[in-house]
Amino acid sequence: MSTNSFVFDAPAEGYFQTQWQAPSNIALIKYWGKYGQQLPHNPSISFTLSQCVTTTAVSFSLREQGTTAFDFLFDQKKQPEFHPKIQQFLDRITPYFPALEGYHLSISSQNSFPHSSGIASSASAMAALALCIADFEKQFHSDWTEEGFLQKASFLARLGSGSAARSIVGPLMVWGHSKAFPRSNDQYAIAPAVKWHPIFHYYQDTVLIVDKEQKKVSSTLGHGLMQGHPFAPQRFKQAHTHLEQLKTALISGDLERFIDLTEAEALALHAMMMTSNPRFVLMQPNTLAILQKVGDYRTQTGRPLSFTLDAGANVHLLYPKKERKPIMDFIRKELLVYCQQGQHINDQVGNGAKKI
Ligand code: DP6
Q1: Which of 163, 187, 214, 223 for mutating ligand 1's site (highest number of atoms within 8 Å of CB)?
Q2: Mutate to test the pocket of ligand 1, among 219, 243, 283, 314 (most ligand atoms within 8 A of CB)
Q3: Pocket flag, ligand 1, residue 311 (CB < 6 Å)
Q4: Distance from Cα 31 to the centre of ligand 1, integer Å
Q5: Which domains can be identified in the chain, with CATH numbers?
Q6: 187 Cβ inside 6 Å of ligand 1
Q7: Which atom of ligand 1 is nearest to the CA of 122?
Q8: Half-sphere CA count of 351, side-chain side, radius 13 A
Q9: For residue 142, how far is its CA from the centre of ligand 1 (angstroms)?
Q10: Atom 4, ligand 1: residue with shortest CA distance
Q11: Is the Cβ atom of 270 under 6 angstroms away from ligand 1?
């Protein structure tokens, strides 16, 4: 796909202000391995969440010579440690929006979830910022459809963080070309025009915070280690197959298949980390204890509780809304002891970003 249609050179004039709230997402089929400019080696699909969100306000004003490209507040405070990531994002998107160079961006962001909870916030943060920038661009495109706007926002978000491309609409987003989804592509994520089984519109995600510390190995570094990884070709093939199979389960509401595929994906992701060079282990003893207990609970009660993992020690517990009461009782009684200070976040599938 040519990226020319994403280049837009607006006139540098005027002042604009906007604010967007973007959700986090949890991948069911994992993106792990990238090439070129933030392009995925395999397609992924995620649940869009609703409670874990980033809210970002941006004001665009004409930039005076010699001034910085942006200033940034997180939780109303200056946080220079975020500057390199924002600068990298602006450097990557400017070729697609050259007029941006004529502007100074005042960015102010906050998360609904604690920054130090170990929950990755780059997806919601980059998506919220990308939506503000796409919104700025929108005023110059009287012909833009809602779809065109969302595509550009996802395209820009991807340049900030791959998984951010999927934090735009809900309830499920696919990023990366898959033959199971006709309009899917590597440049931006889509919310497929598929009638998902209603059970997944209200699926629950309780995040167990096993470790609040920042990850020892960043995702970006981990993606890089898929280059030349001895199992990479098989892994990319597996992700394609899993996505095709998961599509069927997501439409029919086949929870057994859903659980089987999503847990296999979570463990395949960590298997890649454990077999890369250098190898690394992000799961902790408490992570494994939780996985074991979840499996036992499912066998004993027949309730469809399952887990998935991102690139860290925390565990996302997935289950249907109608099972919430008994499953939350089990989580409280048996699993919170494995969390740092019992910390957990109750989230559920949501409908995507919104303008505030
Ligand atoms: C394990 O999107 O954080 O969460 O593109 O380098 O910013 P960058 O990586 P990132 O990787 C996320 C990896 C994952 C799986 C997923 O979300 O699909």
Answers
A1: 163
A2: 219
A3: yes
A4: 6
A5: 3-197 (3.30.230.10), 200-348 (3.30.70.890)
A6: no
A7: 3
A8: 2
A9: 34
A10: 310
A11: no
186 token code pair: 């590597």
Shortest-distance Cα residue to atom 7 of ligand 1: 161
Task: Tell me the pLDDT of the chain (356 aa) as tens digits.
Answer: 667 666 666 655 678 899 999 999 999 999 999 999 999 999 999 999 999 999 999 999 988 877 888 999 999 999 898 999 999 999 999 999 888 888 999 999 999 987 666 676 799 999 999 999 999 998 888 888 999 999 999 999 999 999 999 999 999 999 999 999 999 999 999 999 999 999 999 999 999 999 987 767 788 899 999 999 999 999 999 999 999 999 999 999 999 999 999 999 999 999 999 999 999 999 999 999 999 999 999 999 999 999 999 999 999 999 999 999 999 999 999 999 999 999 999 999 999 999 99
pTM of the model: 0.94
Task: Name the residue with tokens 């509401």.
Answer: 253
